[in-house]
Write a structure and sequence with these properties.
Length: about 325
């Protein structure tokens, strides 16, 4: 990418898209094309076609998606499949038709089989059954990967895919019902502390292990990959380290200053037992995460407090 190139960030107000936008601006890129969902509905084929025909971006970061935690994924199964398929189909196809030099598609670690060998290697895709609770989202993301591969094979498009692990940080979603596990814990422990509660109840057994990556570390990885990587094989993006939900809850409680007890509602689903990424391929490119988990959670909590003060949550 050159400074004069026109770069479209689809989903620039989401957590991933906003981090990519920040990174590009830090690196001196100013020719950014940004549209809110109100300005451009990416599920509408003609609207996306008109946008690409008018703007003709050189590079595309496809970070727009319908996202959420276990509850949202399992509740809105149809929307998660339909909306994500429509968004990525429209953006990828129009990128091909309008001669985009390079596109990056952001997937998710949920693409892997529920019982895939750990750590999750890129080659494990489609080797087993998916986790039921997020199957529609996973199928949409797998379709996005395969679409990028197909357009590369058939048309020679330089379309690449990256699969982030569980992300958190600035501009996260703290919806009490539909957020991911880490922001959900931040909100739950904060409200327990503010309300003087003696107990915080966590979904599931606390035994599943999860890996987390601060979203600004993801953005630095995406920037490097966009500059240097041109292969068909998608890349895992993660920290390469994980911990149990119970351990995570202890860390969050400590950072927020909650003094009460932590208990577990074992009637709620655990989800996939473990989702640790093999990140050897991205590290071979010279990338390593810079923000450790405790530091990142503190930064995320500060951002949560800012969202409260500005009445965003």
């Amino acid at each position: 990418m050159k400074k004069e190139d026109k770069i479209y960030i689809a989903g620039h107000r989401g957590m991933v898209g906003s981090a990519v936008t920040r990174k590009l601006r830090q690196e001196g890129f100013e020719n950014l094309v940004l549209r809110t969902s109100a300005e451009l509905n990416l599920t509408h084929q003609q609207a996306v076609a008109d946008f690409f025909a008018k703007e003709k971006p050189d590079y595309v970061f496809l970070a727009a998606a319908r996202v959420g935690g276990i509850s949202a994924n399992n509740t809105f199964r149809a929307e998660f499949l339909y909306e994500n398929l429509m968004i990525q189909n429209n953006v990828i196809h129009q990128s091909y038709l309008n001669g985009v030099k390079k596109l990056m598609f952001f997937g998710s670690s949920c693409i892997y089989p529920k019982y895939a060998e750990q750590p999750l290697k890129e080659e494990s895709l489609l080797t087993g059954t998916l986790e039921y609770t997020n199957e529609p989202y996973a199928i949409a993301k797998i379709s996005g990967i395969k679409m990028c591969e197909a357009y590369r094979d058939q048309y020679g498009c330089n379309f690449i895919s990256v699969m982030p692990t569980n992300l958190y940080g600035y501009n996260d979603n703290y919806n009490p019902e539909y957020s991911h596990v880490l922001p959900a814990l931040i909100r739950r422990f904060h409200e327990a502390k503010e309300n003087g509660s003696e107990e915080v109840v966590i979904w599931g057994t606390g035994a599943p292990k999860r890996e987390f990556l601060f979203v600004d570390d993801l953005a630095s990885a995406a920037y490097l990959v966009m500059q240097t990587y041109n292969e068909k094989q998608f890349l895992n993006l993660g920290s390469g380290e994980d911990l149990t939900i119970a351990e995570l809850a202890e860390v969050v409680g400590e950072i927020i200053g909650f003094k009460g007890a932590i208990s577990y509602n074992t009637q709620k689903p655990d989800g996939t037992p473990r989702k640790l990424m093999d990140v050897s391929k991205i590290k071979e490119l010279g990338w390593n995460p810079q923000i450790q988990l405790k530091e990142g959670i503190q930064l995320a909590y500060n951002d949560f407090l800012h969202q409260i003060n500005s009445k965003k949550v």
